[in-house]
C-alpha cells in the first residue's frame, strides 16, 4: 500500500468480528483474508478473549507485519492520539470482565477519522468524535498512509 493510499474501513462479517475487521483495515486486506489468518492461529471472532484481552489482536497484527506498542495507553484527548491506533470503545464490565469494541483511529494527509467496522453504521468512516468514547488505545505502526506509523 503506497503512502498516498488511505486506510479504508473493513466491515465485520460476524457479530463479534470487530478485532478481525480492524486488523484487516490496518493491513489493507479483506475481512475474509484476515479471518482466515486469524483462524489458522486459533483465533475466532466468537472467542470473548478477542474483545476482552489484547493478546489475540496483537498476534493477528504481527501476522500482517504490523507492530503494536506494548501496553495500553489511557485515552485523554483526540489530539494526543498517535497517527495510528486501535481504540477500545464501548468499554464495559460484564460479570467483572471488561469488554470493548475495537475501532481504528488514523490521522494522515486525508484527515483524522475513526474506522468503525460495525455493519449497522451508515458510514464506517467517522469524524463524529464527540460521540465516540474511547477508554484506551494501542499505538500501531505500519508502512503506509499514516505519517510516523
Descriptive overview:
The chain is of the alpha+beta class. Helices cover 19% and strands 27% of the residues. It contains three helices and seven strands. It has helices at residues 18-27, 31-40, 55-63, and strands spanning 67-68, 73-74, 84-94, 97-108, 111-115, 125-126, 136-141. Strand 4 (97-108) and strand 5 (111-115) form a beta hairpin. Helix 1 (18-27) crosses helix 2. It is globular. It starts with 17 loop residues before the first helix and ends in an 8-residue tail after the last strand. 40% of the residues are buried.
List the helices and strands and how they pair.
Elements: H1 18-27, H2 31-40, H3 55-63, E1 67-68, E2 73-74, E3 84-94, E4 97-108, E5 111-115, E6 125-126, E7 136-141
Antiparallel strand pairs: 1-7, 2-7, 3-4, 3-7, 4-5, 5-6
Radius of gyration: 14 Å
Helix run count: 3
Helix coverage percent: 10-25%
Low-confidence stretches: 144-149
Helices and strands, in order, run as HHHEEEEEEE
Mean pLDDT, as a whole number?
90
- Biggest sheet details: 7 strands, antiparallel
Ends: how far apart?
A: 13 Å
Judged by helices, strands and strand pairing, the structural class is: alpha+beta
Q: How many individual β-strands? A: 7
Strand content: 25-35%
Shape: globular
Amino acid at each position: 500500500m503506497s503512502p498516498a493510499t488511505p486506510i479504508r474501513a473493513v466491515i465485520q462479517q460476524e457479530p463479534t468480528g470487530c478485532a478481525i475487521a480492524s486488523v484487516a483495515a490496518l493491513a489493507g486486506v479483506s475481512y475474509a483474508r484476515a479471518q482466515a489468518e486469524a483462524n489458522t492461529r486459533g483465533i475466532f471472532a466468537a472467542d470473548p478473549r478477542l474483545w476482552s484481552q489484547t493478546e489475540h489482536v496483537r498476534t493477528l497484527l504481527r501476522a500482517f507485519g504490523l507492530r503494536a506498542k506494548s501496553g495500553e495507553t489511557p485515552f485523554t484527548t483526540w489530539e494526543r492520539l498517535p497517527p495510528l491506533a486501535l481504540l477500545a470503545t464501548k468499554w464495559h464490565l460484564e460479570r467483572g470482565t471488561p469488554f470493548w469494541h475495537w475501532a481504528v483511529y488514523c490521522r494522515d494527509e486525508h484527515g483524522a477519522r475513526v474506522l468503525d467496522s460495525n455493519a449497522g453504521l451508515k458510514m464506517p468512516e467517522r469524524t463524529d468524535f464527540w460521540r465516540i468514547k474511547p477508554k484506551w488505545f494501542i499505538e500501531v505502526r505500519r508502512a503506509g498512509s499514516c505519517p510516523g506509523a
